[in-house]
Amino acid sequence: MAVRGVGDEADPRRRVPRTDAVLADPRLAGLRERVRPDALKASVLSALDRVRSGELGPDRVVDVVLRETGEDPTSLRPLLNATGVVVHTNLGRAPLGEDAVRALEIAAGYVDVEYDVATGRRARRGRGAVDALLARVPAAGDALVLNNGAAALVLAATALAGGREIVVSRGELVEIGDGFRIPELLESTGARLREVGTTNRTHPADYRAAIGPDTGFVLKVHPSNFLVRGFTSAVPVRELAGLGVPVVADIGSGLLAPHPSLPDEPDAASWLADGATLVIASGDKLLGGPQCGLALGESAIVQRLRRHSLARALRVDKLTLAALEATLRARSTPTGEAITAAPDVLRHRAEELSRRLAAAEVSARVVASDGLVGGGGAPGLTLPGWAVELPEAYALPLRQGRPGLVARIEQGRCLVDLRCIPSARDEEVVRAVLAATDLIRGTDPG
């Protein structure tokens, strides 16, 4: 007769529920009606394996089965980003950190988004997010949060240059995502564009010659998603600020202060210090928060934007304000951690993944893999790292898994890059590849 050890009762692996007991649990009644028996049993067995490995507590089995097998309340599919592209536009750009997710849970109910609990009266909307933003960028006199960067630019053009001219370099009239172009966006506000310079070279004299009584402001746009090299010339913000008219500067990516890993990316604090009247930035991308647009600058100018009637149509909801405030107050974000991930750590994780797969007789090897910032940020910068190489046939079943894993297809290979996947989820990557292996082996006619 086996003698139970002193610590056995405390070991959750000693209390693995029976498969039939889990399948009969009343909480799974709805699933038993909607899900195929073999699929439901497979989900239960997978959860029980996680209990045996110590990854999951015995009392969490049914919750996990419900979450992973049940009918989701949204058509959006959870994905693991194994592409190596940090700010991946098609995958929702910046993933939110734990603090931001917690903030969304709080904001889901009734909250004091524009209510003063001390006086019982209406308060300024989103003051927490604005205060957090100003704490990060002290050079700004005030700030406004809008639903994206393009909205902030449209509001600035409407409020500051409606029926007047915006002076801008031809080399900065860029096209942004999904075919939207800055010239068309600005002209839709009723402002007129006064283009100066050429595609590759613009000088201070070009701006001076164009500025006149009808000038609403000078616009400076960081190209973000492309580079022009060679015989080029551009006028920096500090020189534009001396022209005697407001300067609206769109940095695009959302960097609030200089970042040592992104030396060529402009930031809001520096451009405000150089004399920009208003800086427009993204709230996600490099900042790593929810998608929104930020307008920071002189108090009087920001107030003009805030009081303009169009601002009401472009404002963000309580969920965005909550997630943005939490992101601004957090010590780090998943985006920042992915950008600065150490190559040695990435190689170690890739080697461990390769070892686990080799034990299951999966053909995998570790290869060098350069990541990218993505989202229009730092287009000329590569992020050294490592990936696990699989046959290209893995790409589709990995994407269709639960959660789906989106890898990078390159030269007939499927590369699983762990840069954008938290190390705590490496076990999910292993299970995803093994599940894809079972599908491939099961459908292979050979």
TrEMBL record:
The modification N6-(pyridoxal phosphate)lysine is found at K285. It is an enzyme of class 2 (transferase). It catalyses: L-seryl-tRNA(Sec) + selenophosphate + H(+) = L-selenocysteinyl-tRNA(Sec) + phosphate. Pathway: Aminoacyl-tRNA biosynthesis; selenocysteinyl-tRNA(Sec) biosynthesis; selenocysteinyl-tRNA(Sec) from L-seryl-tRNA(Sec) (bacterial route): step 1/1. Its main location: cytoplasm. Its EC number is 2.9.1.1. InterPro entries: PyrdxlP-dep_Trfase, PyrdxlP-dep_Trfase_major, SelA-like, SelA_trans. The keyword Protein biosynthesis applies. It is found in: Cytoplasm. Keywords: Cytoplasm, Protein biosynthesis, Pyridoxal phosphate, Selenium, Transferase. One of its GO terms (molecular function) is transferase activity. Its cofactor is pyridoxal 5'-phosphate. Belongs to the SelA family. Converts seryl-tRNA(Sec) to selenocysteinyl-tRNA(Sec) required for selenoprotein biosynthesis. PANTHER family: L-SERYL-TRNA(SEC) SELENIUM TRANSFERASE. This is L-seryl-tRNA(Sec) selenium transferase. It comes from Microlunatus ginsengisoli. The gene is selA.
